[in-house]
Design brief:
By secondary structure, the protein is of the alpha+beta class. It has 6 helices and 4 strands; from the N terminus they run H-H-H-E-H-E-H-E-E-H.
Length: about 240
């Protein structure tokens, strides 16, 4: 009777062991893909819903503005309050969208981001138009930034603007635009204001290229508001 080769048995055991490990790895990898896909679809669905809601809110604001334009006595509080509230919600949507897009620049994400950018520009234009119908002491800032990690000043500028928003509240509207995004309207705004350096800000109609310190922005905003409008303006 021939003796069994112990090396042959070990090889068969190793093949089965490695095959089982490969199968387990494949299953784990497949589950990971399915979970990742489900999360992406959930994120996309959430962002789509947020943008659709913003578009409806924008149409409502347009209607309010159209109505007030024809009135001799204008009650602008509701319009300005709605405008501020919706821009605040839009900015929160932008932050979530940027987080969702981390590491991905393809497919539906780009379409959703373009939708968002256009919605933000529409709100900026509406805010400018609202000033003609309902004059107020609200200031607008256009923030041109890059998502690129090499633009450390862009992140720093964002933190400064958040700080200013905490100080001036609903008297300050901030609109953030990704300059590297493929949207012609963003390029038109860049060219119109001569934006060549990032970050850059447009406070009302005045351009601030590069990283702008909070002190310079506070001075500019206090000049627009009046020196007694906020405690920070009198210091």
């Amino acid at each position: 009777m021939a003796e069994k080769n112990p090396f042959s048995v070990n090889r068969q055991f190793d093949v089965r062991k490695h095959g089982l490990a490969l199968l387990i790895t494949f299953i784990i990898f497949s589950i990971g893909i399915l979970i990742g896909t489900a999360l992406s679809e959930e994120r996309l669905g959430f962002t789509r819903d947020a943008i659709e809601l913003q578009q409806i809110e924008y149409e409502s604001l347009q209607m309010q503005l159209l109505y007030l334009t024809g009135q001799e006595e204008k009650n602008c509080n509701a319009l300005l309050g709605s405008l501020e509230r919706n821009i605040y919600d839009l900015e929160n949507s932008r932050i979530k969208l940027e987080n969702y897009m981390a590491g991905s620049e393809e497919g539906d994400f780009n379409l959703i981001k373009r939708d968002y950018m256009l919605t933000e520009i529409r709100y900026w234009l509406l805010a400018r138009e609202a000033q003609n119908v309902c004059p107020s002491d609200i200031a607008n800032i256009l923030f041109f930034y890059e998502v690129d990690e090499s633009c450390l000043d862009c992140s720093a500028q964002g933190h400064i603007l958040t700080y200013l928003k905490d100080i001036f509240g609903d008297k300050l509207l901030i609109f953030s635009l990704d300059v590297n995004f493929d949207e012609p309207m963003i390029q038109i705004l860049k060219e119109n204001y001569g934006i060549t350096e990032f970050p850059s800000l447009v406070v009302e109609k005045k351009v601030f290229p590069g990283l702008t310190k909070k002190e310079a922005l506070i001075n500019e905003l206090c000049f627009s508001y009046g020196s007694a409008a906020f405690p920070v303006c009198s210091t």
